[in-house]
Amino acid sequence: MAATYARTRYAAESLILMMIDREHAGIQDVAGNLPSVLSIDGLKSVDSEIRILESRRVIEDTLTVLDPLTLFPELASPRLLGLLPADTPQDRLEKAIDKFKRRLQVEQQSSSNIVRLSFSHEDPDIAADTVNALADAYLKRRRAIFDVARSPFLASELARHSDQLKSIEKQIQTLKSEYEIVDLGQETLLAANQVDSIVQRRRQTQERQAALQAEVAAAKTRLAALPPRVFDFKEQSNQSQNDDDRNVLLRLELERDRLASQFLPDYPPLQELERKIRTVRQSMKGGDKPVFSTQREVRNPTIVFLNNHLLTLEIEQDAVARQLAELDRQHAVAVEKVGRLRMAEGELRDLERTRGVLEDIYRDYAQRTEAARAEEEAAKVRFSNVRVVQPAVAPATGTSMGPSFIIAGLVGGILLGGAAGVLATWLRQVYILPHEIERDLGVPAIASFAATDGELASPGAEQELIHLAAQLRDHALDDRPMALLQFVTANEGDGEATVARGLALEFAKGRGLRTLVVDLCGDGAGQLGAINAAADAPTDAEATGGDGERLPAIDIQGAADLEAVLSAVPLLWVSRQAPESALGSLRTPIAQSRQILERLRQRFDIILILSPPIANSHLARRLSPMVDANILVARAEHTRAPVAARMRDSILASGGDIAGLVLTGRHFHIPQVIYRWL
């Protein structure tokens, strides 16, 4: 219907050149103080001109020249199929502006300075007149925008900031004179060094004062302990003055010895000498000589030394005390100077910061004032850098939206159909693909079968059974392969019986394992008949015996024995009347059920248990922790996701282990490739 009512419109075009270059008079920085215009700056300038061209004021000026009813005659018609009156003049103008904006196209041509101006209308002449009128209104509006005198305001601001800058300079000079500052940094450093030097000298002087006090105290202590006089010497002798007996005796003996060597003993001078020697010796033996003794005491010289040293120390101590007082005075003066310099530094920093800001502002205003003056001088010819290089002419051909509406309808139908399919896929609660099971339930999908109404005899199903059997046998528990497997389903007829038969045939025929199928859902006749029908050829008595081979009875107190019948397939047995046995009864103690399963494990290599649906019976939950693994079975496009999740949670809550999930009954309604996107 939209294609039927679509009308042909004619688009008139005009090209406008935006000259963005420093060499043109219409651009800022006519004096050439700023760097050259970059390409990105030119593109931004062109985009700004486009915004001016699309502004409401320019469109209103255009509609003032052209009557809105001439452009849009439908504005004069009654509204709502004649039920409401026509719009008021003000409403007509607002609607005309909206329609004008929708039909107007202003775009830059391939990152250049050319702007294409286009307007579409049913009348080609009116379209061309509208474009030309819009270009004229744009040039007038642009001239009015840029014709703004800014230099007087900038000049006044420049003068005001100049006065503030001079005032700040005067305050800085006054502050330096008040605090006697030439270079604040150097004087602060010298003052800090002076304080540090005085502190070091005070410490040294205090150390010397403490040392002097200790020396004075030690000298006084030593001085008080010394005696005023000391003993010099003591002498005792019996030798009197002028006592020369020994000397005379010695001389006489020497003379005698000399004469004795020269003369005979009777020589008279020799005898005379003997007589003298006897006389001297007799004299020396006399006891009438007195004994003399001498004792001398003198003044202690250490007292004199200590007194002199103590006097020197006391004099130095007094001098150190005076020096310490002078250092305290110098330290107070230096600290006061540092404090004054700190105060001056704070005030001076504030003033210099203010001066720096004012200098930046003054410099910026000076540049902008000069630029504004140059721009105002060039404002008279500002329109020269925007030129209409191609006026609009009436177009000869027009365009219609009919084909576009048809294509849009087709594409919309396709998209709507796809969206409906996606929405249906998103809202569905059943499973189609195996990976959906892994994503929603967190359980691995270990196998999937296309159809389970009949036997799994197709090549694809056989390969899937081989793959499933390999997964189950390769997974070991406590270094032994899994032997007890339970098939758990939520609903009847989900194909668990077919999958169990196919898996039993694979274990018995393909792998030569003694296999037992325990059917707790029925009497086992259906399973036995299906297995015998699927066998390649019956063998001797197994196919004709009817009742088959009965296993030795398992001794279970108070319940019927579990019986197994050999099928037409060697090494494959099927249970008979299993629901009536002790294993299929909920009254049987759990310990006895474990004993039954353990005895079955000793007789068979693989035991496949088909339990009733978990929603109808508690038996599957009861046996789940006793078996080696539980295999969940879900039917594609039939089993709902909440039901499957509840089945998984029930098995896990009972303490059972889940080997994986088998998806049955898959139907490929659409090509296989599309399933990958579902």
Secondary-structure content class: alpha/beta
- Biggest sheet descriptor: 8 strands, mixed
| CATH class placement of the largest domain | Alpha Beta
- State the end-to-end distance: 35 Å
Q: What overall geometry do the principal axes of the alpha carbons give? A: flat
CATH topology annotation of the largest domain: Rossmann fold
Q: What level of helicity do the residues show?
A: 40-55%
Which sequence of strands runs across the widest sheet? 7-16-15-10-14-11-13-12
Strand elements, count: 16
Radius of gyration: 65 Å
How is this structure best described in words?
The protein has 678 residues and is of the alpha/beta class. The chain has 4 domains: 2-146, no CATH class; 174-232 and 297-379, Helix Hairpins (Orthogonal Bundle), CATH 1.10.287; 247-282; 428-675, P-loop containing nucleotide triphosphate hydrolases (Rossmann fold). It is 54% helix and 13% strand. It is built from 21 helices and 16 strands. It has helices at residues 2-5, 39-53, 56-65, 68-71, 89-103, 124-146, 151-179, 184-225, 245-260, 268-284, 301-378, 402-427, 434-441, 459-474, 496-510, 525-534, 540-544, 590-603, 619-623, 641-653, 672-675; strands at 10-18, 104-108, 114-121, 229-237, 292-299, 386-390, 445-448, 476-477, 480-481, 484-489, 515-519, 563-566, 572-576, 606-610, 629-635, 658-664. The protein has an 8-stranded mixed sheet with strand order 7-16-15-10-14-11-13-12, sandwiched between helices. Helix 3 (56-65) crosses helix 6 and helix 14 packs across helix 15.
